[in-house]
Input
Amino acid sequence: MSIDWQNILFNFLGGLGLFLYSIKTMGDGLQQAAGDRLRFYIDKYTSNPFFGILVGIGTVLADNPTLTTRLDHLGKNPVRIIVDSKARIPLDSIVITDKSAHTILAVTERASQEKIAALLQVGIEVIVTKEKADQVDLSDLLKILAEKNICSILVEGGSRINYSFFVEHLVDKVHCFIAPKIIGGTDAASPIGGKGTFYMKDAYQLNDITTERFDEDILITGYVR
Output
C-alpha cells in the first residue's frame, strides 16, 4: 500500500521567547515552574495521543529522559524515537534500559556497526536513514516511520533538532506553554537553535491561534503554514 506520508500529521512541542519549553522531559527545576494543572495537561495531551515521541541525541546525553507518560491511566506509551546519526547513545541510557516503551534509534551509515549490533542485542530497533548535511535526513526518517504506521509524532527537542524540523518545513502544529517565571542568563538554552532568522518578516508564523489558561499558566496552540 502506498502511503502519502507528506500529508500525515507531525506535531511539534516547543516554546518561543521567554517560554519554558519541553517542561515534561526537562529536570525537576523546570517541572516545578509549571502549575499542577499545566503539568497534568502536558502529560495528558502531549504524550498519549501521539504514536511517537522524538528527541535528538543531545537531549538524551544532557537529561537522560524516560520519554514515557507519567500518568498510568492513560494507557500505552508512545514509541521513543532518538535521532543519533553516529549512534553515540550510551547503552545505559534510560531509553535503552527501560522496556516500558519501544525505542527506535535513527542513525546514518556513519554509525559504528559494532554499536548497532550491541543496540540490536538489547532489543533496540535501529533505522539507517539517508544523510543530509552529515546528519539524519529527517524527511527520509519521517517517510520510514509513516510506513511503520507511526504517523503522529511529538518532537520534544532539544533546540538543534527543533530548529531542523522548522527548517525542513516538517512542523505542523506548535504547543507553547508559558509559565510566569523568568530565568535569564546569557548562556540560557534557547528552544529553537540553529541560525534563526534576522528579520521578523522571516520568522515562522503561527496561525489559527487558540489560548487556554491553567491557573497562572498559559497554553498557546497554533499551526505552521
User: Anything to note?
Assistant: The CA atoms of residues 52 and 78 lie 5 Å apart. Residues 1-31 have pLDDT under 50 and may be disordered.
